[in-house]
Amino acid sequence: MRSPLGRAVGLGSAKEGVEHWWLQRITAVALVPLSLWFVIAIIRLVGADADTVGYWVGRPLPAILLVLLLIASFYHAALGLQVVIEDYVHAELTKLGLVITVRLVCFAFAVAGIFAVLSIAVGMSS
Amino acid sequence: MRSADRPLSPHLQIYRWQLTSVLSILHRAAGVALSAGAILLVWWLVAAASWLGLLMLFGWTVSLFYHLCNGIRHLVWDTGHALDLKSTYLGGWLVVGGTALLTVIAWVAGISSWAS
User: Which residue from B3, B20, B35, B65 has the fewest beta carbons nearer than 10 Å?
Assistant: First the structure.
């Protein structure tokens, strides 16, 4: 995602900062409609029993949007928390350890959430 | 190499608080809170509603709407617009008002949905 000029001249950071910056913004744009949809959907489900919620989760459109929300939000969280860690933690080894931990935890929770949504959706369609 | 006792900036103790810097650090705090809350939300969704759960959910929605509104403000800045002092304050107050409005709307809608 580096600019053509940046690549040709070969100056600037040798790290993956541009990629990080862009992914943070792309996930942010995706999260604007996704999070608003999620809040509205949850408000409509307040007070519903577990069966009703399960039926809602398993339908095609909510299932797809929930998976997209899980991917975008945990990706966005991992990128954002990495910046916070890099700003405040200056011991190289601690910083690396924390960034790796944050990534693994975010990845694990995203996978757990996606698995939950898919297992409900597959259980309903079979 | 005498750099240790130079004055450091920003000097948080004597710096005058401004809307811009307060919103800036709040955006970061809300982002961290949202990340931790996303994990807790999974548990809350499973468990029955409790007062502590409701209070934490309220905090989570405030963080969400604040981070959402201010995130849009950041996306506008990323295009190179509204970076002057007047616009940052106007945008800042819009974010504060938008957060309050969205939070009230969401909870009024949520409570009336629960009551029906």
Answer: B3
